[in-house]
Amino acid sequence: MPREASIEMRLIRHRQSILGIRDSLYVRRCRIAPGFGVADLVILPQEGKHKLVIVEAKQASSADARIKVVGQLLMYYAGALQMGLRGVRLLRQYAVERYAAAQSTRRSSLKAIAGGSMSPEDAWATMSMGRKLRPDNIRLIAALDAEPEPTLKLALTVLTNHHGLDVGVVSTLGRNDVRLWTPDQGSFRP
C-alpha cells in the first residue's frame, strides 16, 4: 500500500477518537467541484456544524509537502463553497449505496456521485443545488506521516486567524499513534 494511502487508512480508523466524528461516512478520491481537483478523503459527519471534512494526505519527507498540502486544501475549500446541500446529501447517499466505490482508491466522479445517468455538467448542476455550504460547514485537514513543521503551523495559524478557516493537521506517526494539531491548541493532543 502506498504511504499516502496508509496515512489515510490510519486517519479513517481513528476519525472518531482524533476528530470527534462519530458514525461518519466517507468518500475517498472525491472530486469536490469541476476544475478543483480530487481530495484524498472527504469525511461526512452525521451531526455538528461541519458538513464536509476535506483531507489531503502527504508524505512529510517530500520537500514541498507543506506547500502542496496547503494549496490543495485551499482549492478544495474554494470548490466546496460552491456545493449545495443537495450535493452533501448525494455524497452521503453515494457513500452508503455505493460503499465499495466510495471506499476505493479509484476516483469518484461527480457524475457517479450524482447518480451516473447524466452529463458531468448536469451532475454538477445537481450537486450545487440548495443552500451553498458556508465556510463554517467545512473543515480542512492535512494528514501527514510526521509532526507538522513550524512553517506549516504558522501558515495554518495565519489562515485561521485572518480568514477563519477551520484547519488542522493529523499526524499518523504509527499504527495507533495518531495526533491532531490545530491553531487554537498550539500543540498536539492525543
- Structural class of the helix and strand makeup? alpha/beta
Kindly state the mean pLDDT as a whole number? 88
Residue share in β-strands? 15-25%
Q: Which spans have pLDDT < 50 for at least 5 consecutive residues?
A: none
Spatial arrangement of strands, main beta sheet: 1-2-3-4-5-6-7
Q: Looking at the structure, what is the overall shape? A: globular
> Helical region count?
8
Separation of the first and last Cα atoms: 25 Å
Descriptive keywords:
single chain, 190 residues, alpha/beta, seven-stranded mixed sheet, 8 helices, 7 strands, 23% strand, globular
What does it look like?
With 190 residues, the protein is of the alpha/beta class. The chain has helices at residues 3-13, 15-19, 65-80, 85-97, 99-103, 110-114, 120-127, 150-163, and strands spanning 25-31, 38-44, 52-58, 138-144, 166-174, 177-181, 188-189. A seven-stranded mixed beta sheet has the order 1-2-3-4-5-6-7, with helices on both faces. The radius of gyration is 16 Å and the shape is globular.
Mind sketching the topology for me?
Elements: H1 3-13, H2 15-19, E1 25-31, E2 38-44, E3 52-58, H3 65-80, H4 85-97, H5 99-103, H6 110-114, H7 120-127, E4 138-144, H8 150-163, E5 166-174, E6 177-181, E7 188-189
Parallel strand pairs: 3-4, 4-5
Antiparallel strand pairs: 1-2, 2-3, 5-6, 6-7
At a glance:
The chain contains eight helices and seven strands, in the order ααβββαααααβαβββ.
